[in-house]
Amino acid sequence: MVTVEAPVARLAALPGVSTASGVAAVAEHAQATGRLLPVRPELRALLPAGGLRRGSTVVVRGSTSLLLALLAEATAAGAWAAAVAMPHLGLAAAGESGVELSRFALVPRPGAEFAPVTAALLDGLDLVAVAPSDASVSVARRLSARARHRGAVLLSLGPWPGAEVDLACESAEWSGLEAGYGHLRERRIEVRVAGRGAAARPRFVKLMLPGGTPESSWQEKSWAEEGVG
Questions:
Q1: What pTM does this model have?
Q2: Residue 139 has pLDDT above 80, yes or no
């Protein structure tokens, strides 16, 4: 059972928490803002409501870059986000993807405290991204229920039972290397969109993700196209 007595105190006492000092301060903000968190225009075709609906659970498979991109617009607009159990995710990568780092927390190695840490963050933040390698079905369902109750968005980098939207990166192609040299500037991906309700009918969306170089930006790569699969 997920229990979160004094969640802020429990979270603050855990080792490895990089930036989580704003949890209590933003709890009221999370309840007061609108029901739909924005995403970049290029990503709206991925989501049934054209944004991240508060209380929902979204799965992202095969692309950490896509996961970070989904956080970018909301954090730029004032939302708070966190990433849990992603030890290889760095702040530099998040910043290059457009995430507002002053409103982004990292809990890279929660260990056995994965469930209570995630629950505590769902209590106070707008978006919580997790890598659920060891989460049981019962824990996953309880955390989704907590996100629903608190009006937060839970994003899973991998399978998660009962998710409303499932985004799977089916193929990817990098560009930028010419004649065997150069820089990786951008990545063209095809995303399979499935899920429940409005997302029940599978379809495919093509996107161009920036490669993290100063020259690449979402504004320059705005060719999101929807195709029927």
A1: 0.74
A2: yes
Short-list 77, 89, 69, 82, CA closest to 129: 82
Structure token pair of residue 176: 């930028």
CB contact burial 191-200 (16+ within 10 A = b; e otherwise): bbbbbeeebe
Write out the DSSP string of 15-40: TT--S-TTTTTTHHHHHHS-SEE---
Specify the amino acid at residue 33.
T
Provide mean pLDDT across the span 21-37: 54
**DSSP label at 2?**
-
Query: How long a stretch of residues is the chain?
Result: 229
Q: Tell me if 104 sits within 8 A of 75, measured CB to CB.
A: yes
Residue 198 sits at the vertex; the CA angle it makes with 47 and 226, to the nearest 5 degrees, is 50
Both structure tokens of 131 = 């890598």
In angstroms, the CA 149 to CA 167 distance is 23
